[in-house]
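User: Predict the structure for this protein chain, please.
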Amino acid sequence: MRIMGLDYGDRKIGVAVSDLLGWTAQGLEVVERRRDGSELERIASLVRDYEVEEIVVGLPKNMNGSIGPRGEICIDFADKLKEMLKLPVHLWDERLTTVSAERTLIEADVSRKKRKQVVDKMAASLILQNYLDSKTKG
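Assistant: Here is the predicted structure, written as structure tokens:
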């Protein structure tokens, strides 16, 4: 059973998918957000291609655990996905995942230009991996 992880940003959506056993997350691609909402069709296409059965959307909480405007936007996005795809959609606390992804890429000496291209995909992988790890522990 494959699970998809999404890092929903202002301009881009990082996409990751699990292996068939649901143990590891791999970054897949970065989907550009569009005014016409066509990014939802691209995600639906990936869901079909990879036979995804669940989706995890990163929920950016404030450091005190509250949900701000950015979090509300992600909740709305998750609701749209749930309605459109008729699949379980989970929200997962993603505090500091993008920061962590950026730091990892800097430590790996990845150029700034390349970091911009992969940071969203890597953040999606971290969100999904954290979710997968929580399921195997419980």
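The first helix runs from residue 39 to 49.
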